[in-house]
Amino acid sequence: MRKILISIFLFLFIMQTGFSSEKIVYLDVEKIMQESTAGKSIIAQLKKKRESSISKFKKREKDIFDKEKKIISQKNILSKEEFESKLRDLRNDISNYTKDRNKASNQITQLRVKASTKLISKLTPILEAYSKDNSIRIIVQKKNIVMGKKEDDITKDILELINQKVKSIKID
What we know:
By secondary structure, this protein is mainly α. The chain is built from five helices and two strands; from the N terminus they run H-E-H-H-H-E-H.
């Protein structure tokens, strides 16, 4: 009796999901991030900040290198105490430079994460409306799919929608 009830239950469950008009699709979120107008805006802003930071640190690096050369050239002229003092100052400068560079790198990484989060938050209502309009039950990220039909890929449609609705995202 139990086997019959289980069989009937499974049959009804399979029938219900088999004839459902809702479907499962997938989306390449990375492609949206890279190719959307807003994603390109984020990438350009981050690139500009990174390049600005790099040029600032290259200048500081050159200054430290010049200071090191100067100290080395004065090694025989300076007293031992003065030389040690200047060497300590140089080490402090190098330590501060390294800390500042790591801090700037971390800030850029945090900006990238925040900007990506903003883009995802703008993408969510678009996906909700799209899934409702097209009777989609589940949208899965493409990176989590082992195999899927190309017609189940909605990336192109979503890319068009997000380009229409979100032109740019300002990073802080």
